[in-house]
Fold:
Amino acid sequence: MTRNGWLFYAMGGGWGHLNRALSLARIVAREKPVTVITNCKQFEIISQARRFKDLVRNIEIVLSGSTTEDTVRSVSKAFETDTYSTIIVDTFPRGLIGELAEILPQAKHARKILIARDISPEYVRKYCLIDFVEGNFDLVINPGEGKDSSFSSLAMRTDPWLIEDDHEIPERHSIRENMRIVDSTNPVVLVCASGKDVDLFAQIAVDISRSISDVSVRLLTPNCPQDFPENWWISHWPGIECISACDLVIAAAGYNIINECAALAVPLIALPQKRLYDRQELRTASCFRTVRTAAECIGTVTNIISAGSLPIRERPSFKNGAREAYSLINRLSQSVS
Amino acid sequence: MPDLPDSSLPCRVMVGFLFKRMCGRTNRIGCQYCKGQVIPADTNVWDPSYDPYYMDRIQYPRYGNYDSQWHSSFNITHRDFTDADANTLHQERDTDYEHDLDAS
Structure:
């Protein structure tokens, strides 16, 4: 029996976990069979994106269902298969609803790697996650998170993981065409949001359009919010391509948006949001500006645009930590076998 | 498969001191309430082998049942405090890990 497949556990309501998992999965899939299990609610939208077929090839995506029962059943079934040589768990060592606490120790045949995006230290302490991780994972990788992030003491750190390499990002003018931006002289402000934050950021987009002239504002969300002008709304995957074509980005401080803006050197005004697991405040150190309220955000945008201080950017050039992670994991496999 | 029979997934043991609610967990490892022990979901009998604090719903099976009789000794307006009210308050908690499939 061939045992060389990789299984990715990419559970989490938004598309951040799936995006990060796919950034490594698509590299692995050029050489090995890959399965990704996810409950990403936006998967249907992502899978219909024009770029999806280019970027996500030879990867089996398993949708876990929307209830606790369906999730446990799907995850158990995926982990029962013993054709995997490597299991990659994103963010949640015990699983999103604790279902891996018993499933993972039984998967003795596979190397187990935790992708340690930051999570709440209270959760880590309450569930003794340091002990669990030490006892159940062969390698912990910090995908470019700060030194104060959870599991840093156990982890090997790479650069942030990105869904595309720098040479894969399309030319700026073709992305702008897709974003229906006709006047190339005006600064382009991109407002990004998903999930519970959509209404807040949609309102910010509207307020910027009303209060600042000579800017083009676009809202990037999975679906167009109710009553939002459709010609200002875009749905595009992967979002990094839209970011590369803009002059200023406004968003919360999730893993992907922070690292994508940093890699592309696009100024980000971050309005960090409270999350159960994620500590968005910790990531704002690398932002262009951090604001606390929508009003402060609009004031900041106004000042930046009127000062004309937005940098002129060149073709992006960055390292993708997912490639480094693949090398690290392969080295582990060789040293163990 | 986790150490809970399919029929009891998620765990149906009622937990919580002030606001009782279904546990909802998918396994007992690290559970703050049963500490890994198997507890019949419908029990109303306190077993001293259980931790008396975490097993409060079993120790005080009538606690939190604010039905139409509980206030009879007080001179107050009749208002039932229902499980739905408790659930509403429970949803406001922001540190209930491993419960919400959309939490991240």
